[in-house]
Model the fold of this input.
Amino acid sequence: MFSGMLFIFLPLIVGYLIPVRKDSVLQFIHAQTSRLVLVILSLMGLSLAGLDNLGENLSQILLYTITFFLCISASNLLVLPLLDKRYPLKTEHGHQQLPKAKMLLESAKLILVVAVGLIAGLLLNMDLSWVDRASEIILLLLLFLIGIQLRNSGMTLRQILLNKQGMLIALVIIATSLPGGLLAAWLLGIPLNHGLAMASGFGWYSLAGILMGDGLGPVYGGASFLNELLRELVALTMIPAVISRFPNTAIGYAGATAMDFTLPIIQNCGGIRCVPIAIVSGFILSLLVPVLMLFFLSL
Done:
């Protein structure tokens, strides 16, 4: 049962064991990771083009996306404000907000890549039997590079353990997302382990969509990708509006992206005190995305 999980998880472990000290090498790895994400998302689009009854499957993808997004977000937002009441965090005001248009454009680019793959598959009428195999190979390489990135992200175990608020935010996101996934699975009438896997993306839309697509097919992959992407888009809009009163909520809802994509806007809107908490929370969630998702997919 766990052999498939171990086969996919092994490159991540191997990558995490590799220390990289040269900034130029790390920059090269970051660039290649970004390119591989674009390649594999285009392959996801091709996979969608190969589905029978495409219109019906697209409707199913949207239904899954909306259901999981509403259930998981509601579950998160019911509990996160309690953290702000119990463990208040002082923020700094007067920071210049970063233009969200640039960040939204980056997200739109990923949607466009999937759309281009879908359109190419529909128009070219090509043999798509090779797509799944190619996606698996690229996925293994991508996980290897992600492992290296996580190892060399600058976070030590001591720094993580000392930042209890960041750890607490991450634990709340995990503890509330999984019940939200179970509720969505019950409403949709799908296996509960599929719901738990869908709930384990924590905002990392590229990896979540890839892992779900590899494990359960393009319908789940597309739904997971859109679900986590929608979470990030809402977070980009929500963080400037709520972080002054509810910093824990803003950081927590950003999920795994709090350590990278949404970190600049968290810093600029909430101040430097929010940064270590966001990095620790985002790091823990990023590390657990492949662990939990692959575990639930193996059940």
User: Anything to note?
Assistant: The first helix runs from residue 3 to 16.
